């Protein structure tokens, strides 16, 4: 535990992850390992949690070609329950930025947004999406964020509205875009003029 909490030991933590082959360990072990991480006192630093999010999950999630196993989903949700901000900064950002990644990764991000992430991390995911050119792949993620019906800071809501307005011509024939605009107007009716 002291190795994982000390701010100067991040190269050693990466080395330990590599030595333990955490990126390819069996998924049932991954669930147990995440349970052990949650029990650590004191909690992991942000940087240590980010390193572990990358080592434990990034390769697995980016290589998904079918829905994640129940073991992988259990490990992801347990890790997110305590370390959602570093998880989002590392893993969700990587999934959103991978143009070649398919529907399974997007579905997974949507499921995490809908069921696991704290409100501030839901906002972080929305910020990450709005920093990129909007695409059909990203529309379900924004829809999942709106489905949470969280109160968004005014500047983030303004950015969402502005992005959707600017992108309207590109999505003229998109049913998902139409659903997204309808959802936004429904959820944030009082704030959108």
Automatic annotation (TrEMBL):
Alphabetized InterPro entries for the sequence: FANCE, Fanconi_anaemia_gr_E_prot_C
Ranges of residues in domain Fanconi Anaemia group E protein C-terminal: 9-192
Gene Ontology biological-process entries: interstrand cross-link repair
Pfam family, one: FA_FANCE
Highest taxon, organism lineage: Eukaryota
GO cellular component, one term: Fanconi anaemia nuclear complex
Protein name per UniProt: FANCE protein
Species assigned in the record: Xiphorhynchus elegans
């Amino acid at each position: 535990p002291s190795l994982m909490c000390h701010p100067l030991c991040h190269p050693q933590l990466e080395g330990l992850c590599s030595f333990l082959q955490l990126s390819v360990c069996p998924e049932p072990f991954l669930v147990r390992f995440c349970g052990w991480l949650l029990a650590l006192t004191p909690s992991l630093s942000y940087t240590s949690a980010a390193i572990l999010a990358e080592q434990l999950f990034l390769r697995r999630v980016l290589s998904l070609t079918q829905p994640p196993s129940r073991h992988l989903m259990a490990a992801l949700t347990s890790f997110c329950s305590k370390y959602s901000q570093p998880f989002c900064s590392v893993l969700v950002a990587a999934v959103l930025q991978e143009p070649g990644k398919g529907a399974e990764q997007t579905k997974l991000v949507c499921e995490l947004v809908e069921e696991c992430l704290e409100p501030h991390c839901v906002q972080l995911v929305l910020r990450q999406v709005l920093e990129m050119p909007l695409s059909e792949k990203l529309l379900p993620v924004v829809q999942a964020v709106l489905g949470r019906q969280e109160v968004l800071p005014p500047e983030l809501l303004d950015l969402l509205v502005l992005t959707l307005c600017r992108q309207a011509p590109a999505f003229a024939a998109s049913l998902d875009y139409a659903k997204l605009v309808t959802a936004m107007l429904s959820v944030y009716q009082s704030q959108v003029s």
